[in-house]
């Protein structure tokens, strides 16, 4: 009887032990997380950098009044295309023409006085040579001649100044371009310095933009700034990309210490004058990249300014691996170094992982 009880007790204990071991194994198995992984492959992509840009016309000149007066004629209209030398405005020169007549009369009078002084000097010189007059009389004749000459020079300068003022009343286009707003109408009284209009030469435009120095050095390393035939585009304020490709040019030769950036400009053809001076937009510099490694941003974590991923082997054991990141796209990084093609990395859920942990691999895609 005792033997039977002992056997029964042994069986019960064995069952309890096996059950306990099974629960422990089950709990240990349940601790292994199932996480998505990403398989590293070589891919082709396009890297684009965007910069805020201000558009300037090839030439943009304000036309100001240089002589006050009555605006007699306006020969152009707003938005009109003009050619170099074309007449734009005429300011009344009636008063200046009267002043010119007076100046010409003064000039003729001084010329007459100069001729008389010349004759008198010649006569005095002859008489002095014959010792008929003293040297004082000769010196007096010379002084009269010099005074007459000075008056002629003054009259010439006065006439020239008036002619120059008259030339300021006729205003012409400095180059081929387009007329901007015209604030004054015919008959308006304009003061010296008043803005009559602005002429813009729009066949070519320049988009000025600044590149932060960290991005500048990255782009110089990638040779995307000095690569011939690079893809340079201009995105307009409405989100539409302008249909002309740009040509990159340096605007500044040094980095601005205050902003930590360097200024560049891109030239665009603007044959229809579609883009106006003062337009804002975004300058897009794109460069194709071949055979690069792209990894999801959410797979990367940082420790003390260094970037890491969890590399996964075939057994599901993870290893913390240091990587070097290049450019940043929408939701991926372009890798410089640290991984190779066909490597497996944990795509997400890295927060609770530790080096050497084991995971169940779940396939995932980029």
UniProtKB/TrEMBL annotation:
Residue ranges of every copy of the Multidrug resistance protein MdtA-like barrel-sandwich hybrid domain listed in the record: 59-195
Residue stretches making up the Multidrug resistance protein MdtA-like beta-barrel domain: 230-274
Classification via NCBIfam families: RND_mfp
MF-aspect GO terms: transmembrane transporter activity
InterPro entries for this protein: MdtA-like_b-barrel, MdtA-like_BSH, RND_pump_MFP, YknX-like_C
Family classification: Belongs to the membrane fusion protein (MFP) (TC 8.A.1) family.
Protein name: Efflux RND transporter periplasmic adaptor subunit
Pfam families to which the protein is assigned, alphabetical: Beta-barrel_RND, BSH_RND, YknX_C
YknX-like C-terminal permuted SH3-like domain location: 293-360
Domain of life: Bacteria
PROSITE patterns: PROKAR_LIPOPROTEIN
Organism whose genome encodes this protein: Flavobacterium sp. CFS9
GO cellular component: cell envelope; plasma membrane
GO biological process: response to antibiotic
């Amino acid at each position: 009887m005792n033997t039977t009880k002992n056997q029964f007790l042994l069986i019960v204990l064995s069952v309890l032990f096996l059950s306990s071991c099974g629960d422990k194994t089950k709990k240990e198995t349940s601790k292994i997380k199932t996480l998505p992984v990403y398989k590293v492959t070589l891919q082709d992509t396009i890297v684009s950098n965007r910069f805020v840009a201000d558009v300037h016309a090839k030439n943009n000149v304000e036309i100001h009044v240089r002589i006050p007066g009555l605006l007699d004629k306006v020969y152009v209209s707003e938005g009109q295309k003009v050619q170099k030398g074309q007449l734009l405005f005429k300011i009344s020169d009636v008063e200046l023409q009267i002043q010119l007549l007076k100046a010409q009369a003064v000039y003729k009078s001084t010329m007459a006085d100069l001729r008389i002084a010349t004759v008198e000097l010649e006569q005095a010189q002859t008489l002095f040579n014959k010792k008929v007059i003293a040297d004082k009389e000769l010196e007096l004749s010379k002084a009269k001649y010099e005074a007459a000459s000075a008056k002629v020079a003054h009259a010439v300068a006065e006439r020239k100044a008036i002619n120059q003022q008259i030339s300021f009343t006729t205003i012409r286009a400095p180059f081929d371009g387009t007329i901007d707003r015209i604030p004054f109408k015919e008959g308006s009284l304009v003061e010296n310095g008043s803005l009559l209009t602005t002429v813009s030469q729009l066949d070519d435009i320049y988009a000025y933009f600044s590149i932060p120095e960290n991005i500048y050095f990255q782009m110089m390393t990638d040779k995307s700034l000095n690569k011939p035939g690079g893809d340079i585009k201009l995105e307009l304020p409405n989100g539409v990309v302008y249909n002309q490709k740009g040509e990159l040019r340096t605007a500044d030769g040094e980095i601005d210490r205050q902003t930590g950036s360097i200024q560049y400009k891109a030239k665009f053809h603007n044959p229809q004058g579609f883009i106006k001076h003062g337009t804002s937009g975004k300058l897009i510099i794109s460069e194709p990249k071949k055979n690069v490694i792209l990894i999801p941003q959410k797979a990367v974590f940082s420790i003390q300014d260094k970037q890491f991923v969890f590399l996964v082997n075939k057994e599901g054991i993870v290893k913390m691996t240091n990587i070097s990141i290049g450019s940043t796209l929408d939701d991926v990084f372009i890798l410089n170094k640290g991984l190779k093609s066909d490597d497996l990395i944990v795509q997400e859920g890295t927060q609770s992982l530790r080096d050497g942990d084991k995971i169940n691999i779940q396939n995932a895609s980029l």
